[in-house]
């Protein structure tokens, strides 16, 4: 073209400004593309076709209703690691933190004033003029709650004449199971006066909680798909002793951005090493009730430590250090599953991350010792493609085990710790 | 087993159906007919008669004991019975009933949770010397009509509770019957218990599970006991007010109890000769802070291996309510039979199978139950009340027409009002 019109080879950088003014008003309208966009094929046997298939699937899931989303995400069954919240594996809490991208923060969030460090000191230092430890409940009401708890403990351990039948490894279930159940229902109903959420709550006893997710990837070592990359799938099937489900969501403990700086331990080994085993069965996502239930948010879960993991037995096996680890792992897995299922019931999933944090609480007890945990789910996007530049982390706060009472003697509860009771009441009083 | 018998069994199993085999075999180790023909009602041959062993005193039997092996012609050695000198619980044989410490000649008839009495409610009335009135007392029903005593959004919340129990409680399509009946009862109880925020008197009550009850009384010449575990007991610090006035109570003296001759009133009760006399226990120690029984909750499918018909289920409710009332009466007034109690003891009961409810209010007026005359106890029984008609996961379609839609159909709010009234009784 330059040859025909004899343009100089040196084209000036800044052409005179008004040169093409006559063309401005005559510009043609934006033209429709004459051909469809050039995208990779959908059915070819190529990597780009596979990527396009995945993109189409993601688009399909994004555009469907929540029920369809759940069924599309859990449709295909493949081998997955079954994560047990109550596990015998050593240092399971670090592994579970890695699987669920959770950071552990010792102590409780600011909403719960100073968690009990040394029970004896706190009791002596409270004076008559001090403000009530539990906001919203005055001393008289707290005394009533204290009497109620004492009566529940005494009813199950002292007053009721029980048939003494022999059973092996069912002591916790037979002795402390009913006690915890009565305690939970009695406390929920008596605190309904102060906490409006509990008035419309739903109490589930031994109902399952399930969650299915993907995290990380591995190279398939053997078989006809050898060498290809495959996401690692996990499933939690939990059965808490009891749980309280509510109709409104609990407020967040910290803003989403505060979790960016938290540290999640990185485990470089395969999950098999933990030990963790794979199975293939139905992928379930369940909070305790199906989707149409109005009480779709979680408040508090209560777990009972089974005989197998009781601290006395662990002490016999010289694994006393694993007691706290077991409790943390249990809380982590159970609460992650519960909050994750709650988030999925609201339509958030791997490629559509949560816009607001989901918060739940848990209390794990073996009858005498109580441990309190709070969980904030900040992200559900845990798979490889979505986690690459996701700075959010989930957070777990937890206490060590605190003794509620020493024992029952001659119709009296010996050594009832008021601070632990206050913490329990504060947990149940949590509301927006 | 001989080869021929094994072959007969195989051919019998092939030719006979399972139902026929069941009909022939009787529990308790009776003889079975393993014939290979189809003739099922054939006479079962009598068991083979063993030869009688004749003991001739003074005759020394030559046995093969010393030779340590069987020798044809010699008799079998008889060794003395060996008994362990120590106690091993794995190999303990209990002595026969006559030799037990608590054996008595006169039998005792026990009503346990698995009793399936023939005459149902009539038998329970006769055993407990009770006059039956259909329907709940009217002053009780008016308790729940008062809007102050009702739950906020009551209908919606009860319907949600039913839907949760029937549809939403499981990952499968529908929960099984024993599961949904249990969940429904617990959900309804939880709903009532949330009223504690507006009715502080509910703080003086406590729910307990699996506590055992024992009560003994004489009726005619026989001794009766109610023993067993309650599924759910709601007890209270304060006794329930009386359900009927003194005049009506006095009028029951003229009432004649219904007998069902020739059937004996002790039919289908467990007859034992080994029992503790005067065994009365409420299931709790004497200084229990909630000594008065308020309501008992019964589930029809509590024991999955054992099903009761409605009539028998109502009889079980009556007997256990009576047992709880009687045990507490014995504790308060002593075990001597009292003609008239100063303060009649009232206990309520609710039984359900997940859809159909039975309501019972029992008032114990007398513990003198040996004769048929005198003041009787009273009970108000509201039977077979349906909370809802259908709760279907998939609609019922007959001839391309929807007969019953999917979801909850035919909800009746007055039934929950009755449930709530029984719960509120005594606190309002």
What topology does this entry show?
The complex is a heterodimer of chains A (432) and B (428).
Chain A: H1 2-5, H2 21-24, H3 47-62, H4 66-73, E1 80-83, H5 92-100, E2 102-106, H6 119-125, H7 139-159, H8 171-191, H9 196-199, E3 202-205, E4 209-219, E5 229-238, E6 242-246, E7 278-279, E8 297-304, H10 311-316, H11 322-345, E9 358-365, E10 369-377, H12 384-387, E11 394-398, E12 402-403, E13 407-409, E14 412-414, H13 418-429
Parallel strand pairs in A: 1-5, 2-11, 8-9
Antiparallel strand pairs in A: 1-7, 3-6, 4-5, 6-8, 9-10, 10-11, 10-12, 13-14
Helix pairs in contact in A: 5-11, 7-8
Chain B: H1 3-15, H2 18-24, E1 103-111, H3 121-128, E2 130-134, H4 138-145, H5 154-168, H6 177-193, E3 205-209, E4 212-219, E5 222-229, E6 232-236, H7 246-251, E7 270-274, E8 292-299, H8 310-333, E9 345-352, E10 356-364, E11 377-386, E12 390-392, E13 396-398, E14 401-404, E15 407-409, H9 413-424
Parallel strand pairs in B: 1-5, 2-11, 8-9
Antiparallel strand pairs in B: 1-7, 3-6, 4-5, 6-8, 9-10, 10-11, 12-15, 13-14
Helix pairs in contact in B: 3-8, 4-9, 5-6
Q: How would you explain this protein's 3D organization?
A:
The complex is a heterodimer of chains A (432) and B (428). Chain A has 13 helices and 14 strands. In chain A, helix 5 (92-100) packs parallel to helix 11. Chain A is of the alpha+beta class. Chain A has helices at 2-5, 21-24, 47-62, 66-73, 92-100, 119-125, 139-159, 171-191, 196-199, 311-316, 322-345, 384-387, 418-429, and strands spanning 80-83, 102-106, 202-205, 209-219, 229-238, 242-246, 278-279, 297-304, 358-365, 369-377, 394-398, 402-403, 407-409, 412-414. Mean pLDDT of chain A is 90; it is low at 117-129. In chain A, the strands form three sheets. In chain A, strands 2, 3, 6, 8, 9, 10, 11 and 12 form an eight-stranded mixed beta sheet that branches. A four-stranded mixed beta sheet of chain A has the order 4-5-1-7. Mean pLDDT of chain B is 89; it is low at 22-28. With 428 residues, chain B is of the alpha+beta class. In chain B, the strands form four sheets. Chain B has a seven-stranded mixed beta sheet with strand order 2-11-10-9-8-6-3, sandwiched between helices. Chain B has helices at residues 3-15, 18-24, 121-128, 138-145, 154-168, 177-193, 246-251, 310-333, 413-424, and strands spanning 103-111, 130-134, 205-209, 212-219, 222-229, 232-236, 270-274, 292-299, 345-352, 356-364, 377-386, 390-392, 396-398, 401-404, 407-409. Chain B is built from nine helices and 15 strands. In chain B, a hairpin with a 2-residue loop joins strand 4 (212-219) and strand 5 (222-229). The chains are: A alpha+beta (432), B alpha+beta (428).
């Amino acid at each position: 073209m330059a040859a025909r019109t004899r343009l100089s080879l040196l084209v000036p950088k800044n052409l005179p400004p008004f040169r093409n003014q006559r063309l401005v008003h005559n510009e043609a309208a934006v033209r429709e593309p004459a051909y469809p966009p050039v995208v990779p094929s959908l059915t070819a046997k190529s990597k780009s076709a596979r990527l396009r298939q995945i993109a189409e699937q993601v688009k399909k899931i994004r555009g469907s209703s929540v029920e369809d989303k759940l069924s599309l995400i859990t449709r295909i069954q493949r081998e997955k690691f079954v994560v047990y919240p109550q596990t015998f594996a050593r240092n399971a809490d670090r592994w579970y933190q890695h699987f669920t991208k959770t950071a552990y923060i010792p102590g409780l969030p600011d909403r719960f004033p100073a968690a009990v460090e040394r029970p004896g000191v706190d009791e002596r230092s409270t004076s008559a003029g001090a403000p009530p430890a539990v906001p919203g409940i005055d001393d008289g009401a707290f005394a009533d709650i204290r009497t109620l708890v004492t009566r529940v403990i005494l009813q199950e351990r002292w007053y009721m004449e029980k048939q003494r039948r022999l059973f092996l490894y069912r002591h916790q279930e037979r002795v402390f199971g009913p006690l915890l159940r009565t305690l939970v229902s009695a406390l929920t109903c008596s605190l309904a006066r102060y906490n409006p959420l509990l008035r419309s709550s739903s109490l589930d006893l031994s109902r399952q909680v399930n969650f299915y997710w993907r995290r990380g990837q591995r190279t398939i070592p053997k078989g006809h798909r050898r060498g290809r990359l495959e996401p690692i799938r996990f499933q939690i099937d939990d059965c808490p002793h009891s749980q309280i489900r509510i109709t409104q969501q609990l407020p967040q403990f910290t803003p989403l951005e505060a979790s960016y700086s938290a540290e999640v331990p990185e485990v470089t080994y395969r999950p098999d090493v933990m030990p963790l085993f794979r199975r293939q069965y139905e992928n379930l996502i369940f909070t305790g009730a199906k989707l149409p239930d109005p009480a779709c948010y979680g408040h508090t879960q209560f777990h009972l430590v089974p005989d197998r993991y009781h601290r006395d037995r662990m002490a016999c096996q010289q694994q006393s250090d694993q007691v706290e680890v077991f409790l943390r792992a249990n809380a982590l897995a159970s609460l992650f599953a519960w909050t994750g299922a709650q988030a999925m019931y609201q339509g958030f999933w791997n490629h559509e991350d949560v816009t607001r944090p989901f918060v739940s609480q848990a209390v794990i007890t073996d009858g005498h010792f109580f441990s309190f945990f709070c969980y904030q789910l900040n992200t559900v996007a845990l798979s490889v493609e979505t986690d690459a530049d996701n700075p959010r982390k989930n957070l777990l706060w937890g206490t060590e085990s605190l003794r509620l009472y020493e024992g029952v003697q001659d119709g009296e509860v010996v050594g009832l710790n008021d601070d632990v009771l206050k913490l329990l009441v504060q947990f149940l009083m949590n509301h927006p | 087993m001989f080869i021929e018998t094994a072959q007969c069994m195989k051919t019998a199993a092939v030719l006979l159906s399972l139902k026929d085999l069941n009909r022939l075999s009787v529990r308790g180790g009776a003889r079975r007919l393993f014939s290979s023909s189809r003739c099922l009602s054939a006479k079962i041959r009598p068991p083979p008669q063993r030869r009688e062993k004749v003991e001739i005193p003074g005759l020394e039997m030559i046995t093969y004991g010393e030779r340590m092996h069987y020798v044809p012609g010699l008799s079998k050695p008889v060794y003395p019975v060996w008994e362990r000198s120590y106690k091993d619980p794995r190999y303990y044989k209990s002595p026969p009933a006559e030799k037990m410490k608590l054996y008595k000649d006169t039998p005792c008839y026990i009503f346990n949770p698995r009793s399936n009495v023939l005459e149902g409610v009539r038998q329970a009335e006769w055993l407990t010397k009770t006059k039956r009135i259909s329907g709940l007392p009217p002053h009780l029903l008016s308790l729940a009509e008062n809007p102050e005593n009702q739950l906020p959004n009551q209908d919606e919340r009860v319907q949600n509770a039913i839907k949760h129990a029937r549809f939403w409680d499981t990952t499968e399509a529908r929960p099984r019957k024993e599961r949904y009946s249990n969940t429904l009862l617990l959900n309804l109880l939880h709903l009532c218990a949330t009223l504690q925020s507006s009715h502080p008197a509910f703080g003086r009550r406590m729910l307990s599970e699996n506590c055992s009850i024992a009560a003994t009384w004489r009726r005619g010449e026989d001794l009766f006991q109610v023993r067993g575990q309650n599924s759910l007991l709601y007890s209270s610090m304060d006794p329930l007010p009386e359900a009927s006035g003194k005049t009506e109570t006095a009028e029951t003296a003229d009432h004649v109890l219904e007998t069902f001759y020739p059937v004996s009133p002790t039919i289908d009760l467990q007859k034992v000769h080994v029992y503790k006399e005067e065994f009365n226990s409420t299931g709790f120690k004497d200084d229990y802070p909630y000594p008065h029984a308020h309501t008992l909750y019964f589930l029809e499918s509590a024991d999955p291996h054992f099903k009761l018909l409605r009539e028998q289920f109502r009889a079980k409710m009556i007997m256990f309510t009576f047992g709880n009332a009687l045990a507490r009466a014995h504790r308060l007034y002593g075990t001597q039979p009292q003609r008239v109690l100063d303060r009649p003891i009232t206990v309520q009961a609710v039984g359900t199978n997940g859809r159909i409810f039975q309501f019972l209010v029992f008032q114990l007026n007398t513990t003198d139950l040996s004769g048929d005359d005198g003041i009787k106890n009273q009970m108000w029984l509201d039977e077979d009340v349906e909370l809802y008609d259908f709760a279907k996961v998939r609609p019922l379609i007959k001839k391309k027409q929807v007969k019953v839609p999917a979801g909850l159909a035919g909800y009746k709010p007055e039934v929950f009002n009755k449930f709530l009234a029984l719960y509120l009784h005594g606190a309002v």
